[in-house]
Each structure stands twice: as structure tokens, then as C-alpha cells.
């Protein structure tokens, strides 16, 4: 017994020492990043946050600004505090602009990163029930997002979504200029969007009105909900001095971001729309709307589970089953609670033969590989932690990773454990 106790004590001591070292290194990182930020007095910083669409907004804005000026864009979706600090250290004095994404998963987390960036322009894309399990309600999420404005430099600009009810009533802060974008045919915002079209295989296009002129905007994005990200990028670029007409031209060539409703063509002619990064209820509703409205020979849903949901698996997966009935011809559910999704789909009226359930990724991938044919449209949707990306790569070749449980929270594309060959990767063609 004493040996077991000694082992537990040793483990706790090691854990405490490791924690202290980690906290010490984090403090050094933040101090270094803050010092470096104070030296970058010629660079204008743009910080982007929001419950949905911030990564795509960052990419769009970064691409627009890069056509005009030396611009730094934070890497992928590295938006947590320590990763924000690392991205600040990547900014160089010759960068005219630095576009930094900021995220938060709990109250009080955003402000420390925001104060580190000290942006000249702050962009808030939306407020939704993402990470809701860590907040009292959606209003507390809105309060958290708005703390970004507290870190604005004197004379800074706030670019906010006027169509979002929790951002629409935002008052002008002392020394801060507020400009708004949103959906409107009456020109009530600084930049207005209307006349949307985005039914697959068509991509998002719409009209904008800036109070004086109307323009036609064409994008490569899938789904009409992306209009908010496009408007945010256009309005922020305009605040940086880029004429609206030039930004609209730049937008046309920008591809969807990885696993954010990103269409990929398979060798057999089927198309997979990757949306397996975010599994929140809001993103499920958006992506399933895309699938339901799409034009395709056959529509297939491959789904795991929802994230950021307080309900029990039985409740949320039966809802998912009902959504599947409303949006696809064939549903493939993956995970330990998939029988609830099956029940929800059957109760809604989906034929039993149109529903498949699997407990593991390998079995699901084998079925899908044998089932897919030319003209099929597949929506790959789930939580990052479910790693549905493995199914995509298994459709075009062998992969090495068979981990039943994986603690990583990033896409498998950049994970060395995936083991997908270069030949297999070349067969996945983003379109």
C-alpha cells in the first residue's frame, strides 16, 4: 500500500512541477510578445473575434490586404491566448498590417489576448451559442465578445455585425468609431447585403450597397450565411484604405478555408463538402441547409455528434436524426450513441435502409468508399475531436492512424499520425 501511495505522491509532485514550469514559460512568452508588440509602432493591427466565421473573415481580409500591402495573417485558427502571443512574435516591422484572430472558450479569456494585440481595428462577426456550456447564456457570450473593444487603441475602429441583435445596439465608445455591416435592402448599415444566391453547385453571390453605389459580389464560398464574413472583410479593408471595388475583385479568387464547408472532388466524381472542424448546433444548421437546398443526384450526410450542447446524447442525436431526414437521401452516423440518431431519423419518416450507423471510423469509411458514385454530394460534418477527416483520406488511400480515441483538437490534415501518402493527398482536389 505504501508503494502505491508513494507513486501517487510522486505523480502529483511531478504534475505540480510541470504546471509551475508551464505557467512560468507562459508568463515569459506573454511578456516577450507584449514587448515586441510595443516596438511595432508602424504596423496597424486588426483583431477579429466572433462565435462563427472569424477564421474565414480573417483569411478573406488577409488576402485582400495582401494584394495591396505587406500583411501578416495569423496561422490557421491559432486564436487561443498563447498562440496569439506566438503569432504576435511572427509579425515583422515591415508588415503594414497584421490580421490576428482571437478566440475564447470561457468568460474573461478574451480580454488578455485583446490587450496583448491592442488592435487599431476590432471586428466582431457574430454571437452564437458556441462554447455555451462555459457561459450562463448567450448574452454572457455577447459581453465576452464585446470586451475586444476595451482593448482598442485610441481612435480605433469597431467593425460589427449590425444584423446580429446582440451587436446592433452597440453604442459608440469614447474615442472609438463604430461602423456596421449587415443584411438590408434599405441601406441602414455602412455596408449592406441583399439579393443572395448560393444554391450548390453555385457559390455565394450577392449585391452590396455602401450608401452611394451598388456592386455585385461573387465568391467561392458555399452557403449564403458566409455573407457576414465577406461583408466584415470588405468593410474592414475599406477602413484600412482599400477601395471597395478592389476588395470585391480580390474576393473572387479566394478559396474556402479548410474544413469550413470546403468542397473537395474525389476521383470517382463524387464531391465531399468538408465541414468537420466545428460541430456546434449553429454550424450544423447552416451546413445542413446547404445540403438540403443543393442540386445533386444523391445527397449523403456523414455525421458524428454536436458540440457545445448541454442536452443529453439521446436528445441532441434524435434532433440530428430529424435534421438528416430533412436534408439528405442517405445518412451515415458515427459514434457510440448513433442509435439515438437512427431513431430520430426513423421517427421523422426516413426509410431504415437509408440510415447507417457505425461505432468506428474505419467501418464507416469502408461503407462510404463502396457506396459513393459520380454525382453524389456528401456533407462531412462533426466535431473536431471525432476526427472525421480520417474518413475523407480513407476514401482515396490507406491511412496509418487507427486511434479509437484521440486527444488532439486540430484537423488530421496536419497531424503526422494520419499517415496519408502524397499520392492520396493529390487525389483530393479542392474546387
Q: What does this protein look like?
A:
By secondary structure, this protein is of the alpha/beta class. It has two domains: 40-251, 3-Layer(aba) Sandwich (UDP-N-acetylmuramoyl-L-alanine:D-glutamate ligase); 262-430, Mur ligase, C-terminal domain (Protein-Tyrosine Phosphatase, Chain A), CATH 3.90.190. The protein is built from 14 helices and 16 strands. The strands form two sheets. Strands 2-3-1-4-5-6-7-8-9 form a nine-stranded mixed beta sheet, with helices on both faces. A hairpin with a 4-residue loop joins strand 8 (205-209) and strand 9 (214-218). Helix 2 crosses helix 7, helix 2 packs across helix 8 (244-251) and helix 10 packs across helix 11 (338-348). The longest helix has 38 residues, at 2-39. The N and C termini lie far apart (62 Å). The mean pLDDT is 92.
